[in-house]
Write a structure and sequence with these properties.
The protein contains 15 helices and no strands. It is an all-alpha fold. 46% of the residues are buried.
Length: 420
């Protein structure tokens, strides 16, 4: 065995890290979504700043990976993120003590604080979630990963459930800065667990890093040579496009129905909790069986089909009840089926392609997909002069185009797996 920890202890560390990271994420998510609803008219601008912030952060992140070494990466990155969350919490508390307005009616630094927090959290997935999965996928061999992946994913989902339940029950009387502090505190045991797991990697030395400062340009080079990787990028972009349209529609409906910001956080927290409950049940009892019995083409097509039905229903019945059902089904099926299937797609490419293109796709496609979707949504809404029903209907053709991409990737993955 290449492990310096017993497998049970390593699995426990992986589960703890997954639980704490996803718990931290779901403490922040309702606050971020509530800010999006409050500053709905500025959402496109915030996504634009977030995209360019990600563009500037990508080479810095690659440089940190190449120079720090895997053993120190999670510990240092998580401490930096926790410190940033504590600073934002202090700023929110300072404004609250002074009685200053921070909502959409505020001017100057009050509104800037909310927007800055929203933009900064757009990098959370790169500096927290990506580090989590980078360490976990390197700490276990292929056989062990298949044995424990369900439990590790389920641990993260349970962390999300606990955090969502906590937000839904306390958002009416707790100010947002408390959730930021709790989220920062959860990153500390995550950093400890991941630091111990990184030490189990035989190649985890300062000289044995997989990243390089030129990762971005090399990742583009790999994409140019592989239609399969381009297909993964296309699948991811169409997913982001649908998610962005749904996000905009949700922000508009939530703002109209719940003017009070605390009530919005409560509603959004309940939605997140429902998603996580369905997700963990699916992960424990359905995910592996679905992918194994239905095959990759069908597994990758589940979310596109749900998206077509959901956007069509929203076009006919543009109510919050329709949106809630659609959002819960789409997000839970993504976490339980589509996301694990997307990770399986990388099992038939070379290590170089996986390590060089995955960060580029995860960060570049997500952030700039968000940006393009935002401008497309706003432009289409102004040009077509339609409301929620029209914009939901506008998303349907993109979801239809998603299905052949999903089936192509599923068939190619299975063909290459058989060849190997």
């Amino acid at each position: 065995s290449s492990f310096t920890l017993p497998i049970s202890a390593a699995t426990l560390r992986a589960g703890l890290a997954s639980f704490c990271v996803l718990g931290s994420h779901y403490l922040l998510r309702p606050i971020r979504d509530e800010i999006a609803a409050e500053f709905r008219s500025d959402l496109t601008e915030m996504w634009t700043w977030g995209a360019f912030l990600a563009l500037g952060a990508m080479p810095i992140y690659s440089m940190l990976v190449s120079r720090m070494g895997k053993q120190r990466l999670a510990l240092r990155v998580y401490l930096v993120v926790a410190t940033a969350l504590a600073i934002f919490a202090g700023a929110f508390r300072w404004y609250s003590n002074l009685g200053l307005e921070t909502g959409s009616t505020a001017s100057g630094s009050g509104a800037i604080l909310n927007k800055s927090f929203y933009i900064a959290t757009s990098l959370y997935s790169m500096f927290v979630v990506s580090v989590l999965w980078s360490v976990l996928t390197g700490a276990f061999d292929s056989r062990t990963s298949k044995q424990i992946v369900g439990r590790v994913f389920a641990a993260g989902t349970i962390g999300g459930i606990c955090a969502s339940f906590f937000v839904s029950q306390t958002a009416d009387f707790l100010d947002p800065e408390y959730f930021l502090v709790f989220a920062a505190m959860l990153l500390i045991p995550s950093a400890w667990a991941l630091n111990g797991l990184a030490m189990t990697e035989p190649e985890a030395t300062d000289e044995g890093n997989l990243a390089s400062p030129n990762r971005l340009s090399t990742g583009i080079g790999c994409l140019k040579k592989s239609h399969y990787l381009q297909g993964i990028g296309g699948y991811l972009f169409l997913f982001v496009l649908g998610s962005s349209f749904l996000y905009f529609i949700q922000s508009e409906l939530v703002r109209e129905l719940w003017p009070d910001r605390g009530e919005r956080r409560t509603v959004l927290g309940k939605l997140d909790m429902t998603v996580q409950i369905l997700t963990v049940l699916s992960q424990l009892f359905l995910t592996s069986g679905m992918i194994r019995r239905w095959g990759m083409p069908i597994a990758l097509t589940v979310v596109p089909v749900i998206s077509i039905l959901g956007f069509s229903a929203l076009a006919l019945w543009p109510t919050f009840a329709t949106l809630a059902v659609f959002s819960v089904l789409r997000r839970s099926s993504n976490y339980a089926i589509a996301k694990p299937s997307r990770e399986v797609l990388y099992t038939v490419v070379t290590s170089e392609e996986r390590y060089l293109t995955k960060p580029f796709l995860d960060v570049g496609v997500y952030r700039f997909g968000d940006l393009l979707s935002a401008w497309l949504f706003e432009g289409a809404r102004v040009a077509m002069a339609v409301g929620i029903s029209g914009m939901a209907l506008f998303a349907v053709p993109f979801c239809l185009a998603w299905i052949p991409v999903a089936r192509y990737l599923g068939r190619r993955q299975e063909e290459q797996a058989r060849e190997r």
